[in-house]
Specification:
Blueprint lengths: L1 H35 L2 H8 L7 H44 L2
C-alpha cells in the first residue's frame, strides 16, 4: 500500500515539476524565436494582398532554409548523443562477455 502512495505522490510531483519546467522552457524558446525573426513583422504589416510578391516568396524561402538548418543541427546533436550511448552500451557488453 505504501508503494502506491509513493507512486501517486511521485507522479503528481513529476507532473508539477514537468509543467513548470515546460512552461519556462516554452516561454524562453518562444521569446528567442520572436527576437530572431524580425522579418515576421514586415510580412505581417504588408497585408494579405502582397503575399505573392517576389520579396515575400524569397523571405519565406530564407525562413525555411533557416529552419531546415536548425533541424539539421538538432538531428546531428541527437545523433552524437545517441552515438555515445551506443558506444557505452557496446563497452558494457564487451566487459560482460569477458567476465
Amino acid at each position: 500500500m505504501a508503494q502506491k502512495d509513493n507512486f501517486a505522490g511521485g507522479f503528481l510531483l513529476g507532473t508539477v515539476i514537468g509543467g513548470v519546467v515546460g512552461g519556462i522552457l516554452g516561454s524562453v524558446l518562444a521569446n528567442r524565436a520572436a527576437t530572431q525573426s524580425p522579418d515576421r513583422e514586415k510580412l505581417d504589416t504588408e497585408g494579405v494582398g502582397n503575399l505573392d510578391s517576389e520579396e515575400n516568396i524569397e523571405l519565406a524561402r530564407r525562413r525555411l532554409e533557416d529552419k531546415i538548418a536548425q533541424l539539421n543541427l538538432v538531428i546531428d546533436d541527437v545523433r552524437d548523443q545517441l552515438g555515445h550511448v551506443n558506444e557505452l552500451n557496446n563497452i558494457k557488453e564487451v566487459q560482460e562477455e569477458h567476465r
